[in-house]
Amino acid sequence: MTITLGDVACLLGIPIVGRLIEEDDLDHDHGVELMVNHLLLLVEEAVEQVSNNSSVFVTYTALKERYDHLLNRCNYLLGRIYQMRGRRS
């Protein structure tokens, strides 16, 4: 099953604009750079994805794991902020 950007735009209401990046446009280093800067992957994770997949794309599992980690970290930090505010009262 393939999910297209059009599907994502429709389901999530996210506008997709601009030129698509073709795989032929990317070399290994540029693909890693894009994954780090735009998908918030760690450099090591991006390199692993590119090496494992023999191409410049990232698996759903890798994205889910990364975003779960980031959301958990945000929730942890917010909890700490609320704890600190509670102690001041």
Short synopsis of the structure:
The chain has 89 residues and is mostly helical.
Description:
With 89 residues, the chain is mostly helical. The protein has one domain (24-88). It is built from four helices and no strands. Helix 2 (28-39) crosses helix 3. 10% of the residues are buried. The mean pLDDT is 83.
Q: What average pLDDT do the residues reach?
A: 83
| DSSP helical segment count | 4
Biggest sheet layout: none
Distance separating the two termini: 54 Å
Q: Output the structural class.
A: mainly alpha
Percentage beta strand: under 5%
Q: Could you give the topology of this structure?
A:
Elements: H1 5-12, H2 28-39, H3 43-53, H4 60-88
Write a concise keyword list for the protein shown above:
mainly alpha; extended; 4 helices; 89 residues
